[in-house]
Design a protein that fits this description.
Layout lengths: L13 H7 L11 H8 L28 E6 L6 H13 L5 E6 L2 H11 L5 E3 L8 H6 L7 H5 L18 H4 L10 E13 H6 L8 H13 L3 E3 L10 H12 L1 H8 L9 H15 L12 H9 L3 E7 L2 H4 L10 E4 L15 E10 L7 H11 L2 H11 L2 E2 L12 H13 L3 E2 L3 H4 L1 H17 L5 H17 L10
Parallel strand pairs: 1-2, 1-3, 5-6, 8-10
Antiparallel strand pairs: 3-8, 4-6, 4-7, 4-8, 4-9
Helix pairs in contact: 3-15, 3-16, 10-11, 10-12, 19-20
Length: about 475
């Protein structure tokens, strides 16, 4: 899990974005030694750095002569963006030295230091060796980031940092609605990806209602092109467009009820309607033949070759499929198609959420310094630098003016603009990993889209899985506040 920069020199691969993103819930499982070590509450600890004087230019009161230590996950995003931000820190505090390092082995490198109570000041807690957030929070190992969020933003002292962030970022860093423990720095757009050129060749626009979707798929079929394909071996990609469609049709509260594992949540009429809509794609022969046997790379390649018009995916697909997407493909993403005008939320409702979790340990020597480094990274200049270098948006709401955006990124920005406040962020993916991937994804949606379950059977099965998870006392349960 987590490709190296060497394997992926051009930017961000799917494994970095998906498998590192808590938003998608594909988190490396920590070893028991880490869980028990965290549970022990740490060792003797280290002396805290004396805070500096709070001024307009130093709102967090950083000690301008104290060392700040920053450990970054070394994955597909590379380390240049972080090194550039470190230079800005050192420029602001010339008397302070920053000890910067990058590793893929976050847990094995940092676990002993958490045990001893001597963790670094800022950590990008990502990759296959990501430390378990729930354990860190539960054992009071993380600093509350509220001082950072309430500090003046780097570019505009009249605006707090929290007011410069994209929708959902603050909430994602909370557990049970309590203070913010995590700052997700990258930002991923999920939806239905397609070639604008292919759509133009059909003389069609992206369909906003399901009747229009079926009509476009029929037109594509007549020209020898399937309407849809998806990662059949990993059908938990289907929710990237299906979940926001459920939210659009029934309202956010339907997704919240699913996240909360409420009894009967999956039996909501909006869920039934959306499952039946997707099943119709299978029934009418609009799904690329053989799709259930394809993995993510094979399905994306078939789609890039023009064998299928639409694919549910996340914004990493542009970089991951760069070698197979033709130059004139004109990559685009849209929010999911809805049912009809009775939908609760407008067309444009999309799923987008944070990835790349940064944390400041509670027992760090220089917590002010760790937060200040994050404040710098959330400036417009640092955000633009990240986006230009790795083809991904950041948590900073803006920061794309003057950058030449790739087609997919440009389309993602336009989709977010269209969505406005209508951005949903289903948490089931990061709250209940196994339920989402293996049970809902593989055993439920995968079987339905392969024609082996009817929508009614799939819903019954998935509701059963959710009920089992809700009753399992060995699983930590979360709820929307």
């Amino acid at each position: 899990m987590g490709s190296t920069s060497a394997e992926n020199p051009t930017g961000v691969g799917r494994r970095d974005l998906i498998k590192r993103s808590a938003a998608l819930g594909l988190i490396g499982v920590p070893t028991m030694s880490f869980l028990s070590a965290c549970a022990s509450g740490g060792g003797g600890g280290q002396d805290k750095t004396k805070a500096g004087k709070k001024t307009e230019k130093n709102p967090l009161g950083v000690n301008d002569t104290a060392q700040m230590e920053f450990v970054l996950f070394d994955g597909g995003f590379g380390k240049e963006y972080a090194e550039d931000a470190v230079k800005l820190y050192e420029k602001a505090f010339p008397g302070a030295k920053v000890k910067f390092s990058a590793t893929q082995k976050i847990q094995s490198t940092l676990q002993p230091r958490f045990n001893q109570g001597t963790p670094p000041d800022l950590i990008d807690n990502s990759g296959a060796e990501q430390m378990d957030m729930g354990v860190l929070v539960g054992k009071n190992q993380l600093a509350d980031l509220t001082p950072l969020l309430d500090a003046p933003s780097y570019d505009d002292p009249g605006k707090k940092v929290r007011d410069t962030l994209r929708p959902g970022i603050v909430e994602m860093g909370q557990f049970d609605g309590r203070p913010v423990w995590i700052l997700y720095y990258a930002y991923t757009v999920y939806g239905v990806w397609y070639s604008q050129k292919a759509l133009d060749s059909l003389d069609e626009q992206y369909p906003e209602t399901w009747d229009e979707m079926l009509r476009v798929c029929e037109k594509a079929k007549k020209k020898g092109m399937a309407g849809w394909t998806y990662a059949g071996k990993y059908p938990y990609y289907l929710p990237f467009s299906l979940y926001p469609m459920i939210g659009k049709v029934g309202g956010r509260e339907v997704l919240d009820a699913i996240d909360n594992l409420e009894p009967g949540a999956w039996k909501h009429p909006a869920v039934k309607a959306c499952f039946e809509a997707y099943y119709e794609l299978y029934k009418k022969g609009y799904v690329l033949k053989g799709t259930p046997g394809l993995d993510h790379v094979q399905s994306q390649t078939a789609w890039a070759q023009g064998k299928a018009l639409f694919i549910p995916n996340g914004s990493w697909v542009e970089n991951e499929s760069a070698s197979v997407i033709p130059q004139d493909f004109d990559l685009a993403v849209s929010a999911p198609t809805g049912l009809d005008s009775s939908d609760k939320m407008p067309f444009g409702t999309i799923w987008a959420s944070g990835g790349e979790p940064f944390i400041v340990p509670a027992k760090a020597r220089n917590t002010e310094g760790g937060m200040e480094q994050l404040r710098i990274m959330l400036s417009e200049a640092s955000s633009k630098n990240f986006t230009a270098k790795v083809k991904s948006l950041t948590a900073y709401n803006g920061g794309t003016d003057g950058i030449e955006l790739t087609p997919g990124l440009k389309s993602g920005v336009a989709a977010l603009d269209k969505a406005g406040e209508n951005v949903v962020n289903p948490r089931i993916q990061d709250w209940y990993v196994q339920l989402q991937k293996e049970k809902i994804g593989v055993s439920g949606l995968g079987e339905m889209m392969a024609g082996r379950l009817t929508p009614a059977e799939a819903i019954k099965k998935i509701q059963g899985f959710a009920d089992e998870t809700a009753k399992d006392s060995s699983i930590k349960h979360y709820k929307h506040q």
